[in-house]
Amino acid sequence: MHRIGVLGSGLHTTFEYLCDAAIPNCEVSVVCANHPDVPLFASAAGRGIPFAHLAGPGTAEIDAQALDQFRRHRAEFVILIGYARKIGPILLDAYPDRILNIHSAPLPRFGGQGMIQPYSQSRVIAAGVRFSGPTIHLVDAEYDHGQILAHWPVPVRPDDTPESLTDRCNAAGRPLYARAIRDFVHRLDHPDEF
Q1: What angle do CA 19, 136, 125 make, to 5 degrees?
Q2: CATH entry, 2-103+134-148+173-193, from 2.30.30.100, 3.90.280.10, 1.20.1250.20, 3.40.50.170
Q3: What's the Cα-to-Cα distance from 170 to each of 9, 66, 81, rounded to whole Å?
Q4: Taking Cα atoms as reference points, which of 182, 114, 113, 115 lies closest to residue 150?
Q5: Are residues 64 and 90 in contact, defined by beta-carbon separation less than 8 angstroms?
């Protein structure tokens, strides 16, 4: 059974979807967030999953606390859910090519520092492109830069607002994330195939 560490900022809908998806040979071992008293913690508690609030003045302190939790709960890889902070070398060195993130818009064009939703979708609409859509990628030292694992195109409608496009991209992103995690675990179990 592969154990997953979750790092988020408080939202819980994607987390609940992934738990309900019952990805084979996987279980969430711990949930961490950098905000206290968030819905993510209530959801974890309701499922009997340990959770921890990370607090500190900077990335190094928060990442060190996260790493302590992930090691304590034997997480083999990490998934980010709505986590807006940059991941630093403490976690990157501990989990090389083992931190996954979901971004609500196409990468690399609509990624980077500050490109959180719905702002990223406002940039998509302003660019006049025909498709947006969630992207799953491995995390590296740059914002929204690592290897792309999956993408799902979501048509941009003429009447879309950043909020409406965000909602549709998030709805597409949840099953895409589950599939990407399933594929990632398959790679862990069958490295000779890749």
Answers
A1: 115
A2: 3.40.50.170
A3: 16, 25, 11
A4: 182
A5: yes
- Going by pLDDT thresholds of 50, 70 and 90, the confidence category of residue 194 is low
Q: What is the mean pLDDT of the chain?
A: 94
Long-range contacts, 155-159 (Cβ 8 Å, 24+): 155/130, 155/131, 156/124, 156/125, 156/129, 156/130, 156/131, 156/132
The catalytic residues are 103
Q: Is the pTM of this model over 0.90?
A: yes
- Measured between alpha carbons, how far is 132 from 106 in angstroms, rounded to an integer? 6
- Residue 81 to residue 102: CA distance in whole angstroms: 7
**How many whole angstroms separate alpha carbon 61 and alpha carbon 54?**
9
